[in-house]
Amino acid sequence: MLDDSDTTDIHPLFAGAPSSTEFRKLRKRLVRETRNAIDDYGMARPGDRWLVCLSGGKDSYTLLAILHELKWRGFLPVDLLACNLDQGQPGFPATVLPEFLSKRQVAHRIEYQDTYSIVTDKVPEGRTYCALCSRLRRGNLYRIAREEGCSAVVLGHHRDDILETFFMNLFHGGRLATMPPKLLNEQGDLTVLRPLAYVAEDDCDRFARAMNYPIIPCDLCGSQEGLQRVQVKRILDEWEKRSPGRRQVMFRALMNIRPSHMLDPKLFDFVNLFPDGSASSADLPPNLEH
């Protein structure tokens, strides 16, 4: 896909990219994995417009660059609009992203909505902000997508985010669920896409650092200790340290689900599972069950 001799035909988002073999391999891997996820989950329809959410973190920078790379190469037949939602956090460097996007010729919209004040006012002291913050952010992004004629809201969640969410639901929510690569919103008019579903967090970090993108930390959530996600990340890090490759094995398990080997009667007809077709106790009158 990327010819090693090709050094001039690049999108401005890749201006100044390292010329090392290691970086080129990383770039190719990111492009391949993102394209595979888009194809596997049928994310792209020719002529659609995507709202690509840019927070200023390493993941969203990687998402933006790789999507533009795919479009630049002719593999993504959609229109891309980058969007940053400035949520009014104290000290947020409001000029960084507009300057970055304008310099690199990326179509964008910057939206200011002070959700920070709402979150800090409504959430009791000592509780985490994430749930309310994400709900307010999501509502604004849906609104912007509709205003801009976009069919999809595109997020930078990667493989490790998906794994962490699975274990958070397992440990704390009592359910087997995570963030799917493709989701229809409750209103049924927008899809939520995660094209980096196959991409490792470490690769996002290496890519954004190599490109020297201006990373903006999330001080609202990052300053709070004891978050469930942080705890789960530490567990996964320890597993990966002891058994390299464990994360990828667990991620593959999320794509290889066997309902008949789980315990959810809503997903598999256990009640009528008999070799002779005889009735189960659930089909018998109450006085015959015992």
Short summary of the structure?
The protein has 290 residues and is α/β, with parallel strands linked by helices. Helix content is 42%, strand content 9%.
Can you give the helix content as a percent range?
40-55%
User: What's the arrangement of strands in the largest beta sheet?
Assistant: 3-2-1-4-6-5
> Biggest sheet, in brief?
6 strands, mixed
Strand-pairing-aware structural class: alpha/beta
By DSSP (H or I, 4+ residues per run), the number of helices equals 10
Element-level helix/strand string? HEHEHEHHEHEEHHHH
Q: How would you describe the oligomerization state of the chains in this entry?
A: single chain
Mean pLDDT: 89
Low-confidence stretches: 3-7, 222-226
> N-to-C terminal Cα separation, in Å?
67 Å
The share of residues in extended strands comes to: 5-15%
- What is the global morphology? globular
Total E-strand runs: 6
Radius of gyration, whole Å: 22 Å
Explain what the structure shows.
There is one protein chain. The chain is an alpha/beta fold and 290 residues long. The protein is built from ten helices and six strands; from the N terminus they run H-E-H-E-H-E-H-H-E-H-E-E-H-H-H-H. It has helices at 21-40, 58-72, 96-103, 115-122, 130-147, 159-173, 201-210, 219-222, 228-242, 246-254, and strands at residues 49-53, 79-86, 108-112, 152-154, 182-184, 191-193. The protein has a six-stranded mixed sheet with strand order 3-2-1-4-6-5, sandwiched between helices. A hairpin with a 6-residue loop joins strand 5 (182-184) and strand 6 (191-193). It is globular, with a radius of gyration of 22 Å. The termini are far apart. 27% of the residues are buried.
